[in-house]
Amino acid sequence: ATVLSWFDDLIEVKKKQNEILEKTAMAIFKSWFIDFEPFKDEDLVYNEELGREIPKGWEVKRLGEVIKIESGGSAPQREEYFIEGKNPFVRVKHLTNQPCVEDADFITDEAVELHSLKLYREGSILFQRSGESLTFARVNILPFDAYIVNHLAVIPNLPSTKPWMEFSFFTLKNILIEAIEERAGTALPYIRVSDIENKIINIPPPSLLQSFHSLVEPLFQKIILNQKQIMTLRKIRDTLLPLLVFGKLRVEEI
Fold it and tell me: Record's superkingdom (predicted)?
């Protein structure tokens, strides 16, 4: 029990680290791009589309003009497609209130080919666009390459979008909170991707966006590393548990 508790404690420490890292990155995002604190002494101009003042020289665009949002693919239904599958397949149930996806199902190569599923790279950003559980603004980083179910939308991690990823993560989170609040009390268990893409946002100059990316990307990389370690620790713990319970392994041997 002591050994298993050690694994659980270490997992909780890393989860707490990820919460702190996300909050730190969010605080920087809010300071720079919502409150404009570093730019208080610069000229601000009123923008009618946003209904507020923004720093002079910043642009205002639809989110879809700067970020590509895609939908996942159809979910394999037959049980045989999950037997001895080796390809990670992320569903709505795998989204968390943590910064990262924590788990996945695994599907066969045949399922991938049959449903023409697209593989998304580690670091892509996921959010829920439909389903009965659409009551929270869960935006997750993908900590491993995976295929994605069609109830989820994806901002692919591509070389061309890399400077935008952290900015997009927090912008998207704010947009989803607003969109879900607007649907509160309705029977609409979905969000149109087009509605998200049409949201008007302020766009900082490229040099400022790059500075934010350079500052915050190491925090996101640490979050992903922590999540990989969490998954490894869970796997080891779950492997040890039956061995300890049935006396096939003694604590002294670990």
Answer: Bacteria
**Burial state string for 51-61 with b = 16 or more CB within 10 A and e = fewer than 16:** eeebbeebeee
| Domains assigned to the chain | 2-253 (3.90.220.20)
Chain Cα centroid distance, residue 106? 19
What pairs with residue 148 in β-bridges?
A: 90
Angle, helix 206-245 to helix 2-29, in steps of 10 degrees: 170
What is the block-wise mean pLDDT of the chain (254 residues), using blocks of 10 residues? 83 97 98 95 93 95 94 92 95 93 95 96 93 78 97 93 94 89 68 91 96 97 97 90 64 50
Q: Is the pTM of this model over 0.85?
A: yes
Spell out where 87-228 has E strands: 87-90, 105-107, 119-120, 125-128, 139-141, 146-148, 152-155, 200-203
